[in-house]
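Lab meeting, action items carried over

1. Structure of the three-component assembly. Owner: GW. Status: complete.
Input record:
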Amino acid sequence: MTNLTSLNYLQPELILTATILLMIVVDLFYSAKKSRRIGLWALAGLVLAFIYITVSGFNIPTALFLGSISSDPFGIFFKVLILLATIMTILVSFSERDLSNQRVGEYYILLVIVTLGLFFMVSATDLIMVYLSIEVVSIMSFVLAGYLRGNRRSSEASLKYVIYGAFSSGIMLFGLSILFGLTGSTNFFDIRTGLMELQNGADLALMLSTVLIFAGLGYKISAVPFHYWTPDVYEGAPTSITAFLSVAPKAAGMALIIRFFNSILGGEGVFTELEWGTFSAIPWTQLLAVLAAVTMTVGNLIALRQTSVKRMLAYSSIAHAGYMMMALPVLSQQGVYGIMIYAVFYLLMNLGAFYVVMIIANATGQEDYDQFRGLGHKAPLLAILMTLFMFSLTGIPPTAGFIGKFYLFAAVIKAGPSFYWLAIIGALNSVISLYYYMYVVKTMFFTQEKTSITQIEFKGISILVIVLAIPTLIFGIYWTPIADIVHKSLAIFIR
Amino acid sequence: MYLEFGTVLAFTILGIILLMVALWLQKLLAPSNPSKLKQSTYECGEEPEGSAWVQFNIRFYIIALVFLIFDVEVVFLFPWAVVFRELGWLAMVEMGIFLVILLVGLAYVWRKGDLDWVKLNMKNARGRYRRFAEDPNSNKNF
Amino acid sequence: MDQLQTYLIIGAVLFCLGLYGVITRRNAIAILMGVELILNSANVNFVAFARFGGMNMSGQIFALFVIIMAAAEAAVALAIIINIYHLYHSINVDEPSELKL
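Predicted assembly:
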């Protein structure tokens, strides 16, 4: 489709772009105190884009801008998810204590730019677009992580983030250049055609480029061994940003990985009910399976010995990336289905857990386990909600997390005996995670009071936690609507 | 086509040879009598003071960064100029939008006072300048 | 020697130098320089493939985008490093270590 007609399909992105420009200009005329209002502008733009996406419903997969991006239900599903995460992030940012005594106009502007980058990330079908969108998201995230400039922890987080981010995107770029050289195109589908005509001698180069590219993609979803930045950045960044980073870029990264491997290294299988073909020449599925197993194991084992709940959640988010990756190498529609459902539920429960930590941090200034001691007596409702999120993250019924994990494991087991080992490792990891999630519950209810919280005000962020908790519980019992939506979204653009 | 570059190459080689000969000649003819004073760094005739590794004003850095960003963005104009005739008015409009977005960036930098050498407009200042914004009389640090 | 090969070797050497720089240096600026080398090694590859591989222009366009992204990334990274210098009076990446196990 040509550039001009493509614009029709790009209206959500255009709305976001206009919002960003408007916000920049408006913020110039706001004083430091008034610049909080920029958050409202951001909210308006995001809600507008959200309404537009859900109402317009472009259901037919189409290639836009001469094939550099595509519009399809798969992408729209993730865009809705990302919008929800951003809207919630902006809502909680209004009551984030760390942000209250400085200028915050740029904070909201950067958040919307990240959202725009994520939009392109989930719909990219061209190597240039892949690189551009990843860089846009990364660079804005570096700034957001270090937004508290005078804060040593926040600055350290952004330093580590920028070094790891720049390094891994550089490595990915080198891999992309090899892939381009092998096939002579930057378009996903031309690359696949090119790879099919490739002689056997190029296997090594293809393997090398796949590994290098996965360094960049794996960094985005914080897969081991590209995860070293995750705990430090998650701990140092403002909590609202941590919650956002642990959900939105991760979902977009998963979408990009699915699209990339499906369009380039897979056949046309997954989304057309056929078997997902693969180049047998390079063992990329085995590689992914091993990475998934290592990712969840490392994440869970290190999460065991944390003293800060925020840092524990950071490591647990690595483990959850591992669970989602588990369903990638099975190369089936069911695997992608599982990942998409899990992404929805993970958004609910992880944001919820982080927001509870944020309430505690707002009230006490700390995120340690000590502040959770005896929370069950001081603020019973909050403790019960946290317990719900912990149950869900572990995957205990009747919570949404259980349903998500169920679909993931079902996909892995259905793929045949060659993947049983992966399912077993996944199950063992769930048991490990049970320990540290339940430790939070135990700390809240069965230890002596030590928390310095006196009373939790019932406003803003607390309401949001309840809003997140209700679906976490309900979808654990009645998840058909989500399953239906995901099922309808299982259509990807294929040329 | 390569023939034209041959001339350039000849000039380059000739230039290097001439320079080498001149330097070699002066080394051969001139008397060499170094002393400590002669070998010290020239600082406008004054005695050199301190190290050359001094901290520059941070303003240099900000101006350099702003220049770098806008300078590099202009790279997009080159491929655009190549295909401009084929694409016609559509390309013109697209580039116009691109430049408007750049202008918003420029307006941002301007309004934040980063184009001024001395920050005068402190209304929206943040960071170290904020104290000054709240109380313009406390300009001890500037 | 085939001309394309020459450029690919240059690209690979640049990549290895950049990798070496990033891994061995402690100074944040030196690490960034290593990253720039990696980015430029990819650029050499892109342009060489586009020029000698009988391929379309997209390689050269890719290189343009990489140059711009590299500039933006360097600007943000330098700003962050300056901020670190203000707080720690050092740009050694080992120095800030408040976020540890």
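2. GW to write a short summary for the group page. Key points so far: The CA atoms of residues 24 and 31 of chain C lie 8 Å apart. Chain C touches chain A through 47 residues (CB under 8 Å).
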